[in-house]
What does this fold into?
Amino acid sequence: MGSVRSRRAAPGALALALLALGVAPATAQELKGPIRIGVIYDLSGPFAAAGSVACLRGAEIAIDMVNEKGGVLGKYKVEAVKADSQSKADAAINEVERLLGVEKLPIVVVDKQKKILWITTAIADAVLKDRHLRYVFRGQALGSQFGEYAVRYIAENSEPKLHVKPQDLKVAIIYEDGPYGTGVAASNEAEAKKQGMKVVLKEGYSVNTPDLSSLVTKLRAARPDVLFHTGYNPDIALFMRQAKELGLRVKAIVGHGAGHSQLPKLRETFGEDYQYFHTVDPVAAQLLD
It folds into this structure.
């Protein structure tokens, strides 16, 4: 996922980060009203259903928790100023500029330099790896951890559930070819080799592709026991539909991404075949109501 795409929120992270940096006291001395914080997520476009709703709810819950206790320092309430990045990098940049320039959200001043405090739920390792950003916080697991744990999950359950030893499993890895999918897939592959599994196919695709039938054909030829799939909501639905139409059969599908966590919807579409779907992702936002 790109640097402007968000995936999950950690309740309380907003206030904790503010207090940790000493931002709240400095800001509070100048404020007569609430402490206003920009909250930007993909609330429209193809990535809206890929976790952004859950992130927004998490941020709102964190703010409510702080405000219920009287606010920051027990005195200053926190107010969310929401923005929609529309699943587009340029829209995200424009919205951040609006939040800073038009909404006049506070900028952290450290060592006489203006800084933006960024609390992100971007999952892709590449967003922050080796960048040494001092004022950026991420309160969730990395994409590489999702990839690793998914393979471990299969390794632990292969004999009792699939009746195959891990080292005898044939696995395939498919993924959207952005930073998110590439990172998770690399971790899938590394852990699969560590577990002694045979990777019979590893292939990426564009998240905007209109047709994945050729990939399904390759998978049918490779005949994996288990399929690891990383994607977003539109391409996950496309792949699942074409896989069913073309008769792809595997013992288990382990998914990373929004569509794989929505088991009731998968059951509506695929009937009892949904029992072959597994995910290590958190529960879908729709189930939090």
In short: DSSP finds nine helices and eleven strands in the chain. The longest strand covers residues 198-205. The first helix runs from residue 13 to 21.
